[in-house]
Amino acid sequence: MPSRLLTPDFFIDAPDEVARRLLGKLLVRKPDSPDDETTSGRIVEVEAYFGAGDPAAHAYSGKTARNAVLFGPPSRTYVYLIYGMHHCLNISCEPEGTAGCVLLRALEPVTGLATMARRRGLPSDASARLLTSGPGRMCQAMGITRLDHNGIDVTDADSLLTVMEDGYGTPPMDVTPRIGIQKAADRLLRFSIQRNKFVSKG
């Protein structure tokens, strides 16, 4: 099946529903220059975050300059920095005005592995699992930063970042609590493809 772009309607539902549907889709990062190459990976691990009812979410306390994209239209990227050094990529959900997003935690690399390794500061033949397993590694390997990629519409064919459907289908999934949070840590809002070796450990 030829790859096709997802539509904004795909992202208009609740974050947990969108998170489940994102598993198996392709995240595609266009090159910055003619000398660069496209990098892409299959989404194998995600987490859902809601708004006012989710104390672990960035939108919990309301709209700010930092999180404004979460209150806008669905299908927009929300990129933030943690620990002052690692970027994380989310995609907004819900109708405009209602905050919600899905955090992409891991990809299975598909194209551009040598470029991913270079961005990660690794040898070109480094293990593929070292490239995009975990949200910080994933963003580094895909060259994603808040400065350059926050607020992008992943359903626009002209965007540097897009999400594609290629007929992979609905994979069997594991559902577990989210990782690395202290509030609402018991909620079963982490979704991953069963037995996929690129899922981050936690």
TrEMBL record:
One of its GO terms (molecular function) is alkylbase DNA N-glycosylase activity. Keywords: DNA damage, DNA repair, Glycosidase, Hydrolase. InterPro entries: Formyl_transferase-like_C_sf, MPG, MPG_sf. Transmembrane segments: none annotated. CDD domains: AAG. GO terms for biological process: base-excision repair. This is Putative 3-methyladenine DNA glycosylase. Its EC number is 3.2.2.-. Belongs to the DNA glycosylase MPG family. NCBIfam families: 3mg, PRK00802.1-3. It comes from the Bacteria. It is an enzyme of class 3 (hydrolase).
